[in-house]
Structure formats: structure tokens, C-alpha cells
Design brief:
Strand content: 25-35%
CATH superfamily of the largest domain: FAD/NAD(P)-binding domain
Structural class: alpha/beta
CATH class of the largest domain: Alpha Beta
Number of helices: 9
Shape: globular
Number of domains: 3
Bound molecules: flavin-adenine dinucleotide
Largest sheet: 8 strands, mixed
Number of strands: 18
Helix content: 25-40%
Order of helices and strands: EHEEEEEEHEEEEHEEEEHEEEHHHHH
Length: 410
């Protein structure tokens, strides 16, 4: 039976990055992915990016953006109940020497690029191989059993990184992340010819709608030859909500209405909807047990305010790999807490307010001059949520003097 320094389960951004860092660091590593690559991943594929002279995202420095960035959005068009539009730039004018934008990627292409980069660095990439069981012996290596079309595959490893997403096996196998807060989001990819439809349907504009989905938002993201149109409930009311057909119908309706109102009407039967849970941050939880570490969605690292997780998956994959390389696996939960806790806790407080009173926040927050730039600074991680949540609460107190708080909801 083969033995590895580390086995990484799942070839999303967390797993692709972890396997790359491990291989580059000289470890013998296998990257296992249950689907044949490239595979579809239900996602909007929007990634905040800061470009000055060098790419700010050191995790992506070795990749050529041209290979996977389909559009580079620099404007946001916000709406409330599909009306009251506000088109705003993401960057200050004049520029501060650092350009922020939303990279629009197709996840099948982006994730495959990360996995291939890990393979080039020396990782053994095995796609079409789903992990079925993990056996953990005290002080011994972890035994991994996986299965694919060519049969059963077994191996042992000194460490396992569970980067197997929201529905992964690793967290369950080691009894971690039992109290999860699961949001749900849905998307459809709609073929599009630029120049057709609403005048603001342009490759440099992403669209965000806040009133159509209670406790969530809807989006239209520009891609090379299509639009990614989606909607999500990012502040779930109760645990079982994601299986609720009423919620799914609401999300589908928001997607169809968005297309219609932007002049891209489609018949519902023509659309292929993909829905997927999002494990939101709900406070720091233990994400390491012995030699097993969780990264990305498996560790619940989705920002509870924006609902984004790609960059946090990359970052946590990198931190997990560094802990394995340095033999410091027991310090992993603390390392993740140091990176994410204070910011995500503040984002959670802001989410509680925003998703309760979105109409008020739209009028007094999102539409304010400069709000989109502040949102981009938050999204890029330049400005901590702590700073903004305090300022936001001050603004709310001022605005509440002129508008009774309950009227804000409508
Ligand atoms: C509709 C929707 C829209 C979203 N839009 C955005 C967005 O615009 N921007 C953003 O930043 N985030 C977005 N997200 C969140 C983002 O998709 C996730 O946070 C991100 O994919 C997490 O990456 P990951 O590597 O942790 O997990 P994943 O990307 O889920 O990868 C996990 C991988 O593990 C594999 N796997 C699972 N089980 C096994 C097994 N047993 N054996 C082997 N392999 C296995 C899976 O096949 C998968 O490839 C969105 C999510 C949804 C649902």
C-alpha cells in the first residue's frame, strides 16, 4: 500500500492550493478528486482582486490570469426590487495606485488550473476517485479508502487535508463541524451575446439585486460567452431550510425575473439550475483532529456577509499545507482563527443587521457615494469588517432618527 506525507481530499481551490504548497515544499502528496476534471462547480465565480504592480494575491502569483479570468468587472450595478438602480465604480477616482476588480472565473477552468499546477509541482493528481472511508489510529498514519471506475484505491498518510467542500466526508469521519450554519444558493449559466439586452449588461459590470430574495441577494456576473445568474439566502432562518422547495422556487423565480428585467428573457425549461449549500462562518470551531485538518468550505470558511468563499478556501488550503510541512498540525485551528476570526465575527454582526433591514441598508448604505468602494475594500480584505461595522452602526443611529426603524424593512 502506498504511503504519503499527505493526502488532500477534494480538488477545489482549498485542495488545489494545499496540494501545490505541499508538493512545492517537497512533500509526497496525493490530490484526490471524486469527479473527473475539469468538473462543473456550482458557483458565481466572482473573486475580488487587487492589482497594483504585482498581484496582491500571492496564492495566485504562479498562474497566468489570462488562462482563467473571463471578465474583469470594475463596476457594480445595484438595485432594490429590480428598481432604484445605482451604478458605481469599484475604484476611487482618481485612482489610489491600486486597482480593485472582480475577476470572473468559470470554476471548471479555474479549479482545473489549480489542480494541474499542483501536479506540475509534483503532486500525484487522481481525479475520478471518491474517498469512501478514513481510518484513524491513535499515533498511527491515517488509512484512506477511495473508489473510482478502475476499482478501490487504498493508501496511508501522515496527514490528511479535508478540502472536500460543504458535503464532504472528512468532517463527518473525524466528528468535526457538527454545528453548521448552511445557506443555500443557486445559479444558472445563460449563453449571452454582448450588446444585447439592457445597456448596462457589459463585461465590466456585475449586477446585484437585494430586494428580490428575503435574507439574501441575487446577482448577474459577466463571463466570456455567458452570464452567471444566481440567487442565495445567506441568512438562513432554520437548519432545514436549504431542502425547502419554497426556498428553491423563490431562488428560481429571482433568477428568471432578473433575466427578464435585463432584457435576456429565457423560458424556465431552457435554464439549468444548480443549487448548493454554503457552510457559513458561525464562530470559530475546531477544524483539526490529530492528523486530519479541514480547509475551505469543509471548515465553514464562507464570509457570512458576502457569501464568498473562494479566496478563503485558497488561504486556508495554504495555511493547512504550511502546518503539515512544519509538523505543527495541532496549531492549525489557532492559525485559522488568527487569520479569520475577528473579521468574520464582525462580518457576522453586519450580516445580522443587513439581512434583517435590507431596504433601509439599501437606501442609507449601498446607495451612498463611496459605498461600493468600501464594499470592495472589505471584499479584498484591505479594510477590516470591525472598522466598518462600527461606522455602519453610527450611521444607522443617525438615519434612524429620521426614519422609524420598522419602516426600514419595506
Ligand atoms: C451558487 C453559489 C455561488 C457562489 N458564488 C461565489 C462567488 O461568486 N465567489 C466566491 O468567492 N464564492 C462563491 N461561492 C462559494 C464557493 O463556491 C465556495 O466557497 C468554494 O468553492 C469553496 O472551495 P473548496 O475548495 O473549499 O470546496 P469546493 O470548491 O466545494 O471543492 C470541494 C471538492 O471536493 C470534491 N469532493 C467532495 N467529496 C469528495 C470525496 N469524498 N472524495 C474526493 N473528492 C471529493 C468535490 O467534488 C469538489 O471538487 C458560491 C457558492 C454557491 C453555492
Amino acid at each position: 500500500m502506498a504511503h504519503y506525507d499527505a493526502v488532500v481530499i477534494g480538488a477545489g481551490p482549498a485542495g488545489g492550493e494545499a496540494a501545490f504548497v505541499l508538493a512545492r515544499g517537497g512533500a509526497k502528496v496525493a490530490l484526490l478528486e471524486k469527479m473527473p476534471l475539469p468538473r462543473h462547480k456550482t458557483c458565481g465565480g466572482g473573486m475580488p482582486m487587487m492589482v497594483s504592480k504585482v498581484l496582491a494575491m500571492e496564492e495566485l502569483r504562479d498562474l497566468a490570469p489570462d488562462a482563467f479570468v473571463e471578465a474583469d468587472a470594475k463596476f457594480m450595478r445595484h438595485t432594490w426590487k429590480f428598481g432604484d438602480p445605482c451604478l458605481a465604480p469599484m475604484n476611487p477616482e482618481p485612482g489610489d495606485g491600486c486597482e480593485r476588480s472582480l475577476w470572473m472565473v468559470r470554476r471548471s477552468v479555474f479549479d482545473n488550473a489549480l489542480a494541474q499546477r499542483a501536479a506540475c509541482a509534483g503532486a500525484e493528481l487522481r481525479d475520478g476517485l471518491g474517498v469512501r472511508a478514513l481510518e484513524i489510529e491513535r499515533d498511527g498514519p491515517v488509512k484512506i479508502t477511495a473508489e473510482g471506475p478502475s476499482g478501490v484505491w487504498t493508501a496511508t498518510a501522515d496527514a490528511v487535508i479535508g478540502a472536500d467542500g460543504a458535503n464532504g466526508i472528512t468532517a463527518r469521519a473525524v466528528g468535526l463541524r457538527k454545528e453548521r450554519s448552511l445557506a443555500i444558493a443557486m445559479e444558472a449559466e445563460v449563453p449571452h451575446r454582448w450588446g444585447e439586452g439592457h445597456a448596462d449588461l457589459r463585461p465590466e459590470v456585475c449586477h446585484l439585486e437585494y430586494g428580490a430574495v428575503e435574507r439574501g441577494y441575487a446577482w448577474v456576473f459577466p463571463k466570456g460567452d455567458h452570464l452567471n445568474v444566481g440567487a442565495g439566502v445567506f441568512r438562513p432562518r432554520r437548519a432545514g431550510e436549504r431542502g425547502d422547495t419554497a426556498v428553491r422556487e423563490l431562488l428560481q423565480r429571482a433568477i428568471v425575473d432578473y433575466l427578464t428585467l435585463l432584457g435576456v428573457p429565457k423560458r424556465v425549461e431552457e435554464l439549468v439550475f444548480h443549487a448548493h449549500p454554503l457552510p457559513l462562518w458561525n464562530g470559530m470551531d475546531k477544524i483539526q483532529s490529530g492528523r486530519v485538518l479541514l480547509a475551505g468550505d469543509a471548515a465553514g470558511l464562507i464570509n457570512p456577509f458576502f457569501g464568498d468563499g473562494i479566496l478563503h478556501a485558497l488561504k486556508s488550503g495554504q495555511i493547512a499545507a504550511q502546518c503539515v510541512l512544519s509538523g505543527e498540525t495541532s496549531g492549525y485551528t489557532e492559525a485559522i482563527a488568527a487569520e479569520f476570526r475577528s473579521n468574520f465575527d464582525a462580518a457576522l454582526r453586519m450580516a445580522a443587521f443587513f439581512y434583517r433591514w435590507p431596504g433601509f441598508c439599501y437606501r442609507h448604505g449601498i446607495k451612498r457615494p463611496g459605498a461600493t468602494r468600501i464594499a470592495m475594500r472589505l471584499f479584498c480584505g484591505e479594510t477590516p469588517f470591525n472598522d466598518i461595522s462600527r461606522r455602519m452602526m453610527r450611521l444607522v443611529r443617525e438615519a434612524a432618527k429620521s426614519e422609524p426603524i420598522e419602516a426600514k424593512i419595506l
